[in-house]
Design a protein that fits this description.
Chain lengths: ~140, ~70
């Protein structure tokens, strides 16, 4: 099954045309937490590979590869979003499907920008951070 | 979600992950995820719901860690 409806695919392709630099998607596979009852028939890792590979067909600036249990990744499957192949701490943990496929596309679009898209005041505030912050945003696909 | 990604791309001190709650139910329970989006910083739940960029950055700077 295609990950986008035809009209959505055309829109995503158009959005990806705006990428200003190449973006690499690394699918991290490893031991998965037991999913909720009713979801056990889904191979989350294989589905994530399929979604990412299909997304990559929509832009020449997108590429993907699969890694088994890369360092610093604790939850599997995960998708690491790397502008120009550089690890910058942008990740999607789980299978990006349904509404949340938009989050992965959003991450790609942001990573494809050469300049940060935050306001100047925000950049200034973040420049003053004196500690490392790991943000986890819990989401659901529906 | 996008704001978290934007912050990670803007600062080498920040990482950002979307976590699909239903695929990681044990972790979601530990983080007391009853509503989404739930924002967790350095393993400590902070707030629920989308907020404007200014508020997001202020809350990040003020994040408490248990």
């Amino acid at each position: 099954m295609a990950i986008f409806r035809p009209e959505e695919e055309a829109k995503v392709r158009e959005l990806l045309d705006a990428l200003e630099r190449p973006v690499e998607l690394v699918v991290a596979l490893g031991p998965e937490e037991m999913p909720l009852h009713g979801a056990r028939d889904i191979d989350f890792g294989a589905e994530t590979v399929r979604v990412v590979e299909e997304l990559c067909t929509l832009s020449a600036s997108l590429s993907s590869r699969v890694e088994q249990e890369p360092a610093a990744v604790e939850r599997f499957p995960a998708v690491l979003v790397r502008p120009e192949g550089e690890e910058v701490g942008v990740r999607y943990d789980g299978l990006p499907w349904g509404y949340e496929l938009g989050s992965l596309v959003g991450a790609v679009l942001e990573a494809g920008r050469r300049e940060p898209s935050l306001r100047a005041e925000s950049l200034e505030a973040l420049a003053g951070l004196d500690r490392d912050l790991a943000i986890d945003v819990f989401v659901t696909p529906t | 979600m996008l704001l978290a990604y934007r912050c990670a791309l803007a600062s080498p001190r920040i990482t950002a992950a979307a976590v699909e709650a239903s695929e990681f139910p044990k972790l979601a329970e530990e983080m007391e995820v009853w509503a989404v989006p739930r924002i967790v910083v350095n393993g400590v739940p902070q707030w629920d719901g989308a907020v404007p960029e200014r508020v997001f950055v202020e809350r990040l700077r003020a994040a408490t860690f248990g």
